[in-house]
Design brief:
By secondary structure, the chain is an alpha/beta fold. The protein has one domain (3-248): Alpha-Beta Complex (Spore Coat Polysaccharide Biosynthesis Protein SpsA, Chain A), CATH 3.90.550. Helices cover 36% and strands 24% of the residues. Strands 1, 2, 3, 4, 5, 6, 7, 8 and 9 form a 9-stranded mixed β-sheet that branches. Helix 6 (173-184) packs parallel to helix 7.
């Protein structure tokens, strides 16, 4: 099976090379790597140029944000399975994609996800949070659960069948997509108890910002309403609390 890995970036010169190397270093042989850049001006394009012979597709043009860029990547993808790696993240080891493919094939599944660790921006060996996920069961989203999106691999045909990222959500479009796929359309997904991703502290949905936490809570509610699903207000409380417990489980 071919796997398409999509990285979206904008002025990511400090971290993009680490993401690129972690994809190119994967032991799985059939990877199509796609990079969507938002017209960077900080040297990101020069770094991408160093690897242009190893990256299947590079697009650099202005966009409305991360989710539009992800949708562009999905539209260009030709793999059977699609994974998304943020420009400041990198794979935990060289066998992540191999593990994903073997398990999706073995379980005849539509999607899978794993665990994620947050690391210090200036010391990626220092873990500050450990997001240990779990198996999905119907109704778990209502109780505040969801997979770590950077670890979420899904068959490309699911995007074609059920849609891509909604552009009317600014920070929770990834959450809404997983809610839609798992809770609404009941795709066959499963959990692999393995760390897939190292994520540097920060990001578009950074929980440390009170303003972003409030906006995220509102988009959490909107995601349920968009999909005609019953919303549980307990999720608004449980989601921030779960992030606090991740600090103590690292």
């Amino acid at each position: 099976m071919k796997v398409s890995i999509i990285t979206v970036c904008y002025n990511s010169a400090e971290t993009i090379e680490g993401a690129i190397k972690s994809v190119l270093g994967q032991s799985y042989p059939d990877i199509e790597y796609i990079v969507i850049d938002g017209a960077s001006t900080d040297g990101t394009l020069e770094i991408l140029g160093k690897y242009k012979n190893k990256i299947a597709k590079i697009v650099s043009e202005k966009d409305s944000g991360i989710y539009e860029a992800m949708n562009k990547g999905i539209a260009l993808a030709t793999g059977d399975i699609v994974g998304i790696l943020n420009s400041d993240d990198f794979y935990y080891d060289n066998d992540v994609v191999k593990t994903v493919v073997e398990n999706i094939v073995k379980n005849d599944a539509d999607a899978c996800w794993g665990d994620l660790v947050y690391v210090k921006k200036d010391d990626t060996n220092k873990v500050v949070r450990f997001w240990k996920s779990s198996e999905y069961k119907p109704g778990k989203f209502i109780r505040g659960w969801h997979p770590p999106h950077p670890t979420f691999f899904v068959k490309r045909e699911l995007y074609q069948k059920y849609g891509v990222f909604r552009l009317d959500l600014s920070v929770y479009a990834d959450y809404e997509l997983m809610l839609r796929f798992l809770e609404k359309y009941k795709i066959k997904g499963f959990y692999i108890p393995k760390v897939f991703i190292k994520m540097r502290e920060g990001g578009a949905s950074n929980w440390r910002s009170i303003k972003k936490v409030f906006r995220g809570s509102m988009e959490n509610y909107k995601a349920f309403k968009m999909n005609g699903l019953k919303f549980g207000f307990i999720a608004v409380v449980v989601k921030p609390l779960s992030k606090i417990t991740q600090i103590f489980s690292k």
